[in-house]
Amino acid sequence: MTKEFNDEQFKNYFRLNRDQFIEVHEIIKKEIDAEGCTATRPIGTEEKLSVFLRYLATGNSYRSMAYSYRMGDRTVSNIVREVSEAIWKLMQPIYLPQPTEEQWKSVADSFQRKWQFPHCIGAIDGKHVVIKKPGKSGSSYINYKHTFSIVLMAVVDSDYKFITIDVGSQGRFSDGNVFSTGVLAKKLLDHTLHLPAPTEMRPSYYLRI
Question: Domains in the chain: how many in total?
């Protein structure tokens, strides 16, 4: 299917260009290979990645995706789970590692240079991701907008790129609650984030109004 589109259609369909698709596929293909599968036509690794990316791009149901790819909805569900786990396992250490002290300093310098915000090592916020109500969950996932959600808590640098994320908390929790009980807060408390030592604010840091 990936060969049927021109470059513009490809990026619009998968939200990745061809080079990015190939890069992701090369990293995870061994992890999602159907080696040993007894099916008459095992699902290929490129097709699995295609299903996964299209699922993310559209937000369609597993059943709708199943019709599009001529698969069972359970198969689509398994593919999404398998590829998700492979991407996190193999790509997180490459693209979202814990920053070093020097990287934190670089982030702070960038915030000062671009936004005149001194001694800032990240901007943090939460995003409610709407979901279908999990079975037997009661009101655990109902948020303040009266929808069901899980919370994506993220810290970004001055270019809006993720530094760290915490995803999966129930929608009923506030951003403050998610942060205080999350991994980031625990690392702050046990001093394992490799943050730079405090320094005095230089005169040039002060904003002129």
Answer: 2
Same-domain status, 190 and 104: yes
Same domain, yes or no, for 86 and 108?
no
Same domain, 107 and 17: no
Same domain (yes/no): 52, 134: no
Q: What are phi and psi of 62, to 5 degrees?
A: -60, -35
* pLDDT higher than threshold 80 for residue 67: yes
pTM for this structure?
0.80
Which residues, including other chains, have CB under 8 Å from residue 51's CB and lie 6 or more apart? 65, 69, 71, 76, 79, 80, 83
DSSP H helices, 96-207, are 101-115, 175-180, 183-189
> Of the candidates 41, 20, 51, 45, which has an alpha carbon nearest to the alpha carbon of residue 32?
45
Among residues 34, 63, 94, which one ends one of the domains? Answer: 94
For residue 78, what are the domain limits? 7-94
Helix (H) or strand (E) holding 148: none
Q: Is pLDDT larger for residue 51 or for residue 208?
A: 51
Short-list 76, 81, 90, CA closest to 31: 90
pLDDT of residue 34: 76
Tokens 């990645």 appear where? 49
pLDDT the model gives residue 209: 45
